[in-house]
Write a structure and sequence with these properties.
353 residues, alpha/beta, ten-stranded mixed sheet, globular, binds nicotinamide-adenine-dinucleotide, binds 3-isopropylmalic acid, binds manganese (II) ion
Length: 353
């Protein structure tokens, strides 16, 4: 029996609610298959833990996680703990500490999913955003000088390394080549005269290694406009950490909403565990009431199945999500339904057979 060791960090707000449902789906899949199992260990880390202990995770938290095959995370952040502390000491610490430099975020409008765009064909919203996930605007480099004084100055430095740019771009090109698709570079080299000029230069160099892969480049402002007006232009998208963060919430909005947007934080070399999480946050406005849509977390679980080499099951889970959307009976209020979190997952499990 192939045992996948999963570290489960539900986190805050709706995080634990959606992760619980994703785990039920994973266990169901394992039971149906019979040749693999999930060995899950829960870690009670997050903002409540912080308020009790003064830390988001124990001092040796990263060592505790290092032995797992994957991490399944809900969401982090709660009123009462400054977001930059909760996120930097848990979510971003894991992404960076485990060199999860690829953030893979599908933006695909499933059948039955609501779309606010007029005049856009469903099949035109089908892209994968490959977001740089280890450096860039999220490098955490900076300073805060003369706090509170007239001459106060705050610096937040973007860090773009040759290796960091090359590896995320090569990943995007490999993905595009395997799918017979184009790569679109999203940049801002007209204004960011060091970082993004350099980014574009590396993009051009890497593109030469893949002469068979068509490429496009857009400035991020124009790209945002085309996400809405003409999303069919995009297939594989590669972009920086901050642009990728913002564009994938926009992507979520055109592809069914935050309740459907999934993501994987990958260390492709598998030196460290990769982490699977919905891209939404802890949604304190709806937490604790059974209103959270678990489909994003379940889709992330499907990405985990892909990553473990169970692509057939990853696809079946995605098909089951789609079937639930098409049936339209078991959906949470964000999708216009009246079902609760548990009932949506029950429907996915039913569709899996
Ligand atoms: P959010 O994604 O939590 O919520 C934005 C809106 O989308 C809210 O109206 C919320 O109710 C809705 N929403 C989100 N997920 C949903 C779901 N599964 N089902 C139904 N509705 C859903 O973003 P926010 O409000 O900006 O942030 C709240 C907290 O989460 C903050 O502390 C923030 O820092 C944190 N955050 C964490 C992550 C993460 O852990 N990956 C991501 C984004 C935000
Ligand atoms: C996301 C989130 C995080 C990010 C925050 C919570 C640090 O918004 O995963 O999209 O910006 O990466
Ligand atoms: Mn985000």
């Amino acid at each position: 029996m192939n045992n996948h060791k999963i570290a489960v960090i539900g986190g805050d707000g709706i995080g634990p609610e959606v992760v619980e449902e994703g785990l039920r789906v994973l266990r169901h899949v394992a039971a149906l298959d019979g040749s693999f199992a999930f060995d899950c260990t829960a870690f009670p880390w997050g903002c409540e833990y912080y308020l009790k202990t003064g830390r988001m995770m124990p001092e040796d938290g990263m060592e505790q996680l290092a032995g797992f095959d994957a991490i399944y995370l809900g969401a982090v952040g709660a009123p009462g703990v400054p977001d930059h502390i909760s996120l930097w000491d848990l979510l971003l610490k894991i992404r960076k500490g485990f060199d999860q430099y690829i953030n893979l975020r599908p933006v695909k409008l499933l059948e039955g999913a609501p779309c606010p765009l007029k005049d856009v064909k469903r099949q035109d919203i089908d892209m994968v955003v490959v977001r740089e996930n280890s450096e860039g605007e999220y490098a955490g480099a900076g300073d805060w000088l003369f706090p509170g004084q007239e001459n106060e100055v705050v610096l937040q430095t973007g860090v773009f390394s040759r290796r960091g740019c090359q590896r995320v771009m090569r990943y995007a090109f490999e993905l595009a080549r395997s799918r017979g698709q184009s790569v679109t570079n999203i940049t801002k080299s007209n204004a960011l005269n060091y970082s993004m000029v350099y980014w574009d230069q590396i993009f051009a160099q890497v593109a030469k290694e893949y002469p068979d892969v068509p490429t496009h480049s857009y400035l991020v402002d124009a790209a945002s406009m085309f996400f809405v007006k003409d999303p069919g232009r995009f297939q594989v998208v590669v972009t920086s950490n901050l642009f990728g963060d913002i564009l994938t919430d926009l992507g979520a909005a055109i592809a069914g909403g935050m309740g459907l947007a999934a993501g994987a934080n990958l260390n492709p070399e598998r030196r460290y565990p990769s982490m699977f999480e919905p891209i939404h946050g802890s949604a304190p406005d709806i937490a604790g009431r059974g209103l959270a849509n678990p489909l994003a977390a379940i889709w992330s679980a499907s990405q985990m199945l892909d990553f473990f080499g169970h692509e057939d099951w990853g696809k079946r889970v995605l098909d089951a999500i789609q079937q639930v959307l098409v049936e339209g009976r078991d959906l949470t209020p964000d999708m216009g339904g009246t079902a609760n979190t548990r009932q949506v997952a029950d429907a996915v499990i039913r569709c899996l057979g």
